[in-house]
Design a protein that fits this description.
Number of strands: 27
Number of domains: 3
Helix content: 10-25%
Shape: flat
Strand content: 25-35%
Number of helices: 8
Amino acid sequence: MNVSDARAKDLATELRWIAQRRLPETFKDSNSDDTDEKFPITAQRVQELEPERWERDPPGALIAVMRRAIASLVADETIPNCAISWQRTAAILFGFVKLPPRADGQRVNYDDYVAQAEEEARFSGSTRDFRRKVTAAVRQQIATILLDLIPEHVQIQERSLVTPDEEHPPTAYPRIHLKTDSGVSACLGVANVTAGSSAYYGVVDAAYDQVVKVVLTYFNDGPDQRDVGITPRLEVPTLVDGRWVITWPVAAGDSSASPSVKVNLKRADAKLVYIPGTAVWKRNVALPGQPLQVEAEIIADADVLAPSRPLDTLHWGDDYIGTLTALFRVQIPGIRIVVEARSPVNDNWLQELYVQPNTKLTVGLTVQNIGNTILYGVVAGNNLPPNAEYVAGSTVIAASLTDPGSSVPDGIVDSDYPTGDGRPPGRRVGVNLGTLTPGQEVVIRFEIQLGALAISNMRNVGFVSATGHNQHYNKLVIYTEPST
């Protein structure tokens, strides 16, 4: 277990005792044993996140911080085996949901809150498991969030650098940063711009196809008061402990800093990808004491991801602040296959149809990229049901079910191959469709000949796969009935 994991685990243990004694009672009397010595990690984080309120009202500061942490949970994500969300459960356990008075007139206690959460959860396991496992998992989620929160009064804001800002002048620019040995400060923040956020945080949530914006701010406030060349280098996002981490190291002179931010994607198959051509550089080029003069330009991807020379030479002083921004998109792959046959009665394409024995059918496999990332090595194939044979030379690739398309060699089903060729029975072959861009659809059509037997339920199964992805299946159900 690394240091951060151990710290989160210890914080979760503190939260267990805090939840049991209720938030308003924690840190209420600084002269009692209920002080920052008993809950050191919690006390430290509350002081960091609410320093002014902590001085005058420690319990109120704790409540404000916990409210922020619970609000950071995804509201509609339910706990496994429960009908309640993480956010709702946390709100109940930490007393943010008001419960009716007890029938015996006693004060509502922690056990009452746990019982309320369990009732709403409709948990499929035992009460013991809910109290031990589910509540512990909720506290662990809150602990992880608390360690990632940043003070609201120093949320990183991207300044336009176009006109002086009286509220946030250059010398008062909010600083959440790492400092190099040479004195250059590097700040990094991330915002979910698709969700409409204009504030930059250390951690954000993002969903399918959303875009997050990262801003790197740098300035030279070193003690040597000397000019320093800087070379920022944006790193490809990496997955660390279930979160995507964006790091933007800054080399300054003979030292460096590597600030990073995190993005929660909530899905194992999601990834965060840099959008080419979106890096923008802004900096003040005015002489000392002169009005701000801003230059902005789009930076070539090569100079962002693998710079070969310094980007900027920083004079000493906050007037020489500069920013770099870049956009990243959440990509989630998706592929779908639909298996249909053309009705001999009315030419409609159906996934379930009734026909007579000895009927020849045209089958269509519609393959579509339903994600927002390119799929490579796409292969589609078909497993015939009993009492059906493939019609040699009938395979066509087309843009739609009605498009004439172009003939392709046989290979859509196993029965294309003669017996005795050494291929094991049941081997799946298929037609190579190559690359599919997001939204692209391809149709494979072929003919099958049904036999003379009347079978009530025949399943023709189509399948599709792509490089790095599992196979997906769908079926066509055929009922054959003898004519009366």
